[in-house]
Amino acid sequence: MAGNGNENADGDFSFSAAAARDALPRITTEKGAKSADVCHDDTAPRVNFQTIDELHSLQKKRSAPTTPLKEGGGVVMGTSGPTTPSSGETMLQSVSASLASLTRETGPKLIRGDPTSAAKVAHVPHTPTSVPAADVSDSGLKFTHILHNLSPAELYEQAIKYEKGSFVTSTGALATLSGAKTGRSPKDKRVVKDETTASELWWGKGSPNIEMDEQTFLVNRERAVDYLNSLDKVFVNDQYLNWDPENRIKVRIVSARAYHSLFMHNMCIRPTPEELENFGTPDFTIYNAGKFPCNRYTHYMTSSTSVDINLGRREMVILGTQYAGEMKKGLFGVMHYLMPKRKILSLHSGCNMGKEGDVALFFGLSGTGKTTLSTDHNRYLIGDDEHCWSDAGVSNIEGGCYAKCIDLSREKEPDIWNAIKFGTVLENVVFDEHTREVDYNDKSVTENTRAAYPIEYIPNSKIPCIGPHPKNVILLACDAFGVLPPISKLDLAQTMYHFISGYTALVAGTEEGVKEPRATFSACFGAAFIMLHPTKYAAMLAEKMQAQGATGWLVNTGWSGGSYGAGSRIKLAYTRKIIDAIHSGSLLNATYHKTEIFGLEIPNEVEGVPSEILEPMNAWEDKEAYKDTLLKLAGLFRNNFETFTSHKIGDDGKLTEEILAAGPNF
Ligand SMILES: Nc1ncnc2c1ncn2[C@@H]1O[C@H](COP(=O)(O)OP(=O)(O)O)[C@@H](O)[C@H]1O
Ligand SMILES: C=C(OP(=O)(O)O)C(=O)O
Ligand SMILES: [Ca+2]
Ligand SMILES: [Mn+2]
């Protein structure tokens, strides 16, 4: 009903304009009313805006220097460079150099800020330069907006506005999808083999380094750079690796998704505003064009995914996979090359420290418990996955943790649970569409659901993430055969034997195509990431453990009472008790008995752990089946070690012999 109708006494409506005017009630002002009697709210503040736009412009305070937009709106970096660059311009020049095509003269024109504020671009004076027509391309004429080191809040907004599948969960985390790939693609990881790397790196059987030539790398690099420059905007993260200030590495990550930028914001070390201001040229750059496939007509390409490392150029290119773990583990590979050159051992291990300063390392393959067991409410967390061991002690390479969250429970893993809050990236989890509560048991997208959070989200993290020399070196194996003891003490030769073997049952999920746990051997508990021959890392570990008098332990976080399918996984609560006994030193004084075949020293008792499970055979009903399975596993160990029998470990011929003798005897 139209609002200008008037109801008469009969309830009819009259639309006569005159009648309507006559029927308007008159508002009369009471004569003689003093102004003092009128309710006068003199607490109402003055307004500082005349228009809605002005009001909105007041909402955001300028912040420096991580996210400033220069006065006048936007710094442009294109074919004409400014004469005395401000820090914003220096950053754009540096990013422009990173994104420069190798085949065209004109690099991309870059502008800071989100393209939705692009109105400002038109007003920026831009001196025309004459370029030969042949060198001009459309992509060289357009602007690419650079979103440089955005804050988590800004990245949330970018993700939610522009990336399908990005949502805020009930605890404030950013849930997102990694696309078709929900785990790493080790078979698509390639390393440029040039004159230097041909002799320095480990190539051939067992090596993760699948070769590619420089030319093919450049083809993929150009593909990634062209893709990124074709976008309206790209995210750039300038960050650090390694908390050891003397061995810090500057990394730049150029990516197409806010999800990738937030992931690396969390996983790498975050520079202070001052450090960012003076960042300069990165030591290593990742071009993440993961949304875009590689070209299968390109030499060496066997799928649409390619993760390429060029140590000479200090660059990494990602095509055809959006799984964020490729970036962090790719950089880890680079550290496995750079650090040993400086006589620093890089470790695929978690690391924590007790109140007395006792440091423990937790080596293990994916899913064996590095993150879970290094996150310990009674100890300081140094890091969950990647460390360095130098002459000064240990340092974390990263600034965040990347926890598996399948079946995550508040009760069993409270610190990880509580870290899943605003700022945390939650990959591939399933949540209620209304409440946005995450169902951590749901494997609909993948088994490899993950949470990436800054390390300070763990309340007892040790910042800076460094510590003294390790006292205990714990090797984690998730034994799907159920024949390795839950805990055994190792001598140095045994520690080296098991370190080089790197046995576990690969739990489904982290690598593409693995659906069931299956026995696997991965040298140094991280063959997918090492660059040099495993014996080089083993020799360094032996030397450091010997020098520091560290004790080696083998902890089976896998099955007990039977193999996968028949037995059951050892309760996390028991494994924690075992780890407590290692840390407290009480296990050093326990009485031990030696096992057949593997010659492992098993303690007779561990406080809080049922003694029946300490000796694996006792937990099996079918003793014959146990013996057969044990022999089968011993055979697998022996076969695997054959490739290492011809290698010497360090300068000590005696140690090499001892290591060979430390394997199973049957
Ligand atoms: N006894 C156990 N010890 C360690 N982890 C266990 C155990 N039982 C089950 N788990 C589960 O196994 C997974 C170990 O994964 P995680 O700690 O992320 O491994 P990593 O960091 O080595 O990849 C976690 O989901 C954890 O809850
Ligand atoms: C992220 C990974 O590591 P982890 O499972 O050891 O945490 C990975 O291997 O992709
Ligand atoms: Ca878990
Ligand atoms: Mn982990």
UniProtKB/TrEMBL annotation:
Reactions it catalyzes: oxaloacetate + ATP = phosphoenolpyruvate + ADP + CO2
Broad class of where this protein is predominantly found: cytoplasm
UniProt keyword Transmembrane helix, yes or no: no
Pathway assigned to this chain's UniProt record: Carbohydrate biosynthesis; gluconeogenesis
EC assignment: 4.1.1.49
GO molecular function annotation: ATP binding; phosphoenolpyruvate carboxykinase (ATP) activity
Pfam families in the record: PEPCK_ATP (PF01293)
Location relative to the cell: Cytoplasm
Superkingdom in the source lineage: Eukaryota
Xref: Gene3D superfamilies: 3.90.228.20, Phosphoenolpyruvate Carboxykinase, domain 1 (3.40.449.10), Phosphoenolpyruvate Carboxykinase, domain 2 (2.170.8.10)
Entry annotated with the keyword Cytoplasm: yes
Keyword field: ATP-binding, Cytoplasm, Lyase, Nucleotide-binding
Main function: Involved in the gluconeogenesis. Catalyzes the conversion of oxaloacetate (OAA) to phosphoenolpyruvate (PEP) through direct phosphoryl transfer between the nucleoside triphosphate and OAA.
Cited PANTHER family: PHOSPHOENOLPYRUVATE CARBOXYKINASE (ATP) 2, PHOSPHOENOLPYRUVATE CARBOXYKINASE ATP
NCBIfam families: pckA (TIGR00224), PRK09344.1-2 (NF006820), PRK09344.1-3 (NF006821)
Protein name, entry field: phosphoenolpyruvate carboxykinase (ATP)
Taxonomic source organism: Brassica napus
